[in-house]
């Protein structure tokens, strides 16, 4: 059924970069046979799950939507992929994303645009745009995304599905192609809070292969999700409902607060005074880490390599010309073959947004600017975390918007990186603080587009966030 749905709708939506057709069917049939033999099956037995294409799966191309990794086939499974397999899920395909997960609209994918199933002229959000769109179009019930600064929650909100960014370290990052390692976290997208709980239970857990993974038992989220949490205090930040936020989002937030009030929650105002610096802080830290992480794509070890023959011929030709001209200074400066290989490989392999971030990050980390930018950003990051610590002394969780407005039109912001970055205003803080956040659909705009809200809680409060989300749904 999932494959039929993909065949019918994905030509319009473009959520998948690869579909495992026959291989997925074979796997499903094998699970059926095991079921018939009375074998004990895993939590996701036979359920089709889509996986974002920055997660390694043995023997399957893992492209990160980049020319740099267009032909990369990993020889190993990411821990989350291994866990899905162990739970007898059927991995049905790999979903589209912004190149290396850098973006908020899935428009920076080197291969294709993904469209929002609610309005095909609009972006599905990003960077896990494919992951959200395939759930929204009911191609699959579950998909796995990654969230560095909102990439699960933002597309979930814009596509009207539910998504959770877990506590940093709750889910192993082993086998996730690194973007910004101190912010990256893998999590579930699904049609409901209950399904997110189920998928999180499979994904979460300690992994010795990720040094930042938390060594704590995984609660049985699926069982706990329908339990009613007691005496919940929900905070909200009044300034988040003011300037620059669309009236539809403000109304949805107010309505959601009222629903929670009617469900017995106590609503309180809280302050996150440093939230206004979150976007600036995030982009300095994320780009710095990205510039370092992406240094590995050198055309030598693996991934794309420029046409060496053409490159060597070009270099020889330049040398000959400079010798003829007697231009010794330029001859001295001429690239070595290895430098030219590196330069051309990266020039051809990376798209514009990835290059922009490598340059920003390299600048922020360079001698002389490090203290002013990177170190300062780390300090503000600490203040943002402290704001949350203080707020969570007064409330159990904080309700906020996910995006300042519903999904925008394809092409609307692609030539304005700053406008694109500012759209991340409400999501990046949770990553900077390492806290969990659950985004779920809460209303519709006047144009009929989905609007999501998010509940953020202290580290490892996934269980409670899911319970409150469940109560709302
Ligand atoms: N939109 C944010 C960015 O462009 C977040 C991306 C993400 O979470 N992967 O960096």
From TrEMBL:
Keyword Transmembrane: no
Catalytic residues of the enzyme: 52, 127, 151
GO biological process: translation
Enzyme class: ligase
Keywords, ordered alphabetically: ATP-binding, Ligase, Nucleotide-binding, Protein biosynthesis, Transferase
Reaction(s) catalysed by this chain's protein: L-glutamyl-tRNA(Gln) + L-glutamine + ATP + H2O = L-glutaminyl-tRNA(Gln) + L-glutamate + ADP + phosphate + H(+)
Family designation: Belongs to the amidase family. GatA subfamily.
Domain of life: Bacteria
Record bears the keyword Protein biosynthesis: yes
Quaternary structure and partners: Heterotrimer of A, B and C subunits.
HAMAP family hit by this protein: GatA (MF_00120)
InterPro entries membership: Amidase, Amidase_CS, Amidase_dom, AS_sf, GatA
PANTHER family in alphabetical order: GLUTAMYL-TRNA(GLN) AMIDOTRANSFERASE SUBUNIT A (PTHR11895:SF151), TRANSAMIDASE (PTHR11895)
Name of the protein described by the UniProt record: Glutamyl-tRNA(Gln) amidotransferase subunit A
Function: Allows the formation of correctly charged Gln-tRNA(Gln) through the transamidation of misacylated Glu-tRNA(Gln) in organisms which lack glutaminyl-tRNA synthetase. The reaction takes place in the presence of glutamine and ATP through an activated gamma-phospho-Glu-tRNA(Gln).
GO molecular function, one term: glutaminyl-tRNA synthase (glutamine-hydrolyzing) activity
A Pfam family it matches: Amidase
GO cellular component: glutamyl-tRNA(Gln) amidotransferase complex
Enzyme Commission code: 6.3.5.7
Domain Amidase: 1-466
